[in-house]
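Same chain as my last thread, 400 residues:
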Amino acid sequence: MAGTEGKEPLAGLVVIDLGQIYAAPYATLLLALGGATVIKVEPVHGEHLRVRGQVGGPRYAFANLHSNKNFVTLNLKDDRGKDLLKQLVAKADVLVENYRPGVMERLGVGADVLRAINPRLVYAQSSGFGRSGPYREYPAMDLSVQAISGVLGVTGFPDGPPVKSGPAICDFFGGIHLYGGILTALYRRERTGGGAVVEISMHEAVYASMMSNLGHFFSSGVDGFRSGNRHGGYSVVPYNVYAAKDGHVGIICESDGHWRKLLEVMGRHDLVDDPRYAQTKDRVAHIDAIDELVGDWVGTLGKEDVFAKLRDVGVPVAPVQTLSEVTTDPHHYARGMLQDIEHPELGTVTVPHSPILLEDVGRKKPRPSGALGQDNEQVYGDWLGLDRTTLDEFAAAGVI
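reply #2:
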């Protein structure tokens, strides 16, 4: 099957992907782009994100998350379907799923059953809250995990309600950690020969992202605060998004040196030795005055002008870009992170490559996501060895 050629770091690895929506499919996308052979196993009607594609936008999300994969269908509520999964697992290295805990066990194909068939199997599972603990049975989607994890509570402006993060950070933090957990288990397998059960909780995966907010809470005891576009720990000033003539710009002065360079560019040499702003602790105490000072200066310029002036002296700065600007960003294209490919259903689409770059491998053009069950014959027939008659019978019975 495709995905085992060349010098890709994960070439030869076979992954059974039962993932749905975002978290597990992103982990398996990283595996596929690393050279693994990923067999995307969907219910006969398609996984949730593919079905959502009737609306429009999810079709593009599905295409973005399923490059370089092989697509089969399988009814796991049918004993013949369960047997087919067991045959796949017997020849695989990794199985990935993100059903609610207990679903695979109730189907009779949980980790214990599958690892008895293949003791070298890495069984990797992502869920909202993990396979144990008092929240185990809670239903979980990105928004609900953002709410209960604290992310929603620390996002927004001080005088407003909690606001969700724009991106689905809990889903994708879960997917990133799932990928890392799989590779950790495979590394151990290389030394011991044994497989593992890897579990990732979205609830746990996102916790460390609030480090600035947590630091402020532990040091001050202040709870329930939201900092808007200011630093979540109120320990870096200026740190904000400022309005220019034609858009917005994010500016951060992480050090005293950054602050002095900003003052020089602003032409405020009179403030370089001002004791009110000399050190971080002083600037934090005068955060409102500094934001007004910087905001007034930015407001006299275009966002690209601010960007150029501060970038040239090494102050961390960037214009706020729209999605149309991000998806045509020349830096992404120069590095091969974004690539345009021809999709059989969607025409020309922009898809991401893996952020993990091995320089001697580079980033090859991804294969587009496939139609529902398009690789059934190749996987079940050529790879597992089922004959034509059996395949036809299974298709007629709704097994595949």
